[in-house]
Prior knowledge:
Layout lengths: L2 H18 L2 H7 E8 L5 E3 H6 L4 E16 L2 E14 L2 E16 L2 E11 L4
Helix pairs in contact: 1-2
Amino acid sequence: MSDHDTVIEAQSRFDDAELRDDRAVLNELLHPEFQSIGPKGFVLDKEQWIGRHEFFRYHELDVDEIDARVFRDAAIVRSVQRNHADSSGHDVRIATRVSQTWVRDDGAWRLAGIQFSPFADG
Length: 122
């Protein structure tokens, strides 16, 4: 399997783990130095990202327009994500462009960073 296909598979596993609240898979896939930048600018590290599942749950998570670019031991995966979730009892529906940075770490692809950019209203 090519690096491109392996990264796409890892990204798909990540999305599935997010949807199913599979913290073991998230722990495996996230690099120890992982950081996310949320759609409102907040930053979460690996522990915080996984821990947010205590109060955040996806009902739907649709990912399309996937574009992956591999650069030796790094890859950037861009996509469009539409989701329906519950955050601390509040209904959340958002469409964002997502940029993921994957790195090869000890022979496996790990997610090192993710950034969400919401679509402008109108």
